[in-house]
Amino acid sequence: MNLQDKFLKLREHLDTLVVGQRALLERMLVALLCDGHLLVEGAPGLAKTRAIKVLSHSVEGDFHRLQFTPDLLPADLTGTEIYRPQDGTFVFRKGPLFHNLILADEVNRAPAKVQSALLEAMGERQITVGSVTYPLPKLFMVMATQNPIEQEGTYPLPEAQLDRFLLHVLVGYPDAEGERAILDLNRSEAQQAAGDADLFSPRDVLGQNDVMAARQEVLALHLAEPLQDYIVQLVLATRKPERYGDELAGLLQYGASPRATLALDRCARANAWLSGRDYVTPVDIQSMAHDVLRHRILLSFEAEAAGRTADEIVDTLLERIGVP
Predict the structure, then answer these.
(1) Region 221-231 average pLDDT
(2) CATH number of the domain located at residue range(s) 221-320 in this protein
(3) Can you tell me the distance from the alpha carbon of 138 to that of 111, in angstroms, rounded to the nearest whole number?
(4) Closest C-alpha to 291, from 275, 273, 268
(5) Contact 127, 136 (CB under 8 A)
(6) Burial (CB count within 10 angstroms: exposed 0-12, middle 13-18, buried 19+), residue 151
(7) In the predicted structure, residue 190 carries a pLDDT above the cut 80
(8) Of 6, 178, 196, 285, which residue is least crowded by CB atoms under 10 Å?
(9) Are 230 and 323 in contact (CB under 8 A)?
(10) Partners of 238 in the beta sheet?
(11) pLDDT of residue 89
(12) Contact 162, 294 (CB under 8 A)
């Protein structure tokens, strides 16, 4: 069984345990293949925690969930040095960030210092305590969640730090068919709760070597030069949107950074690879554009006052930029 077949089997397993959230599952696999992190925004009860937990049981790695609260300290994430009075030395005790898959639940409820500790680990893949730097595992992925309902007492992530996330995924409610499937799945799991079977664990677990090898295949995927130019034009258009329509002038304070170009390139490759192809199409780029760009462009006051959204502006740019 080749790597694409293994990931296809993994996706089928995720679909059986996380109902009605196919887009979220796809983006999680894309982030895993691109060695990136996700910011997931949605109302409570939409299987965000369940999704990352199921994925963690499907790969050869360990999982840790962090509930972010206003009284959290950076050392609660990174770890701290413990004094040993018996010999007068300090021993470093690793924090939860040293796991492979991290769920940072309601990341906007923690103060800025805690968010900075998390984002530094995401960007640098290392943690420095005192004068010693500790590397994080090679397989390291953070899925941070935000609750869009309650904003009182929260600490919104600064726009400049949002750039550290590969994707910003919006999670919506399932449809009627998905809601009925959730009922059936919940009843089935409740009936098996007394048994010893682990419902979250697949029969075949992907090893970390499989994930690393799949990442190399994604990087080697063919991306034609005209499509590279298409990615560059799309990112540049967020910096000078007025070139694509007078009504777009003044809607954006800042456009996407070069990280967006790199992210869109890798995500389009991963999307094509997960689709079983060995080449990228314009559809791969367009399907990933919103999740890559929505948190990297900063709307102006005029745009917010007019009720415009980042997704609407990305839609307009996709319509007006010529597809190769």
Answers:
(1) 95
(2) 1.10.8.80
(3) 27
(4) 268
(5) yes
(6) exposed
(7) no
(8) 196
(9) yes
(10) none
(11) 84
(12) no
Q: Is the pLDDT of residue 293 over 90?
A: yes
The token pair that represents 155 in the structure block: 């600490």
Reading the block at residue 24, the tokens are 């979220």
Q: Dihedral angle at the C-alpha atoms of 192, 195, 197, 198, nearest 10 degrees? A: 70
Nearest to 252 by CA among 262, 260, 27, 287: 260
Instruction: Give 41's contacts (C-beta < 8 A, 6+ positions apart).
Output: 145, 146, 148, 168, 169, 170, 171
Q: Alpha carbon of 104 to those of 63, 96, 161, 165, 311: distances in Å?
A: 11, 10, 15, 13, 25
Domain boundaries, the chain: 3-192, 221-320
Task: Please identify, in words, the CATH class of the domain defined by 3-192.
Answer: alpha beta
Interval 131-142: pLDDT, tens: 888 999 999 999
Burial of 85 (0-12, 13-18, 19+ CB in 10 A): exposed
Closest C-alpha among 210, 234, 278, 230 to residue 32: 210
Q: How far is CA 169 from CA 69, 146, 182, in A?
A: 22, 10, 21
Each residue's pLDDT tens digit, 63-98: 999 999 999 999 999 998 888 888 888 888 999 999
Give the Cα separation of 205 and 207 in Å (integer): 6
Radius of gyration of the chain (CA): 21
The 10s digit of each residue's pLDDT in 259-278 is 999 999 999 999 999 999 99
For the purposes of burial, counting CB atoms within 10 Å of the CB of 29, is it exposed (0-12), middle (13-18) or buried (19 or more)?
Answer: buried
Residue carrying structure tokens 């910003």: 168
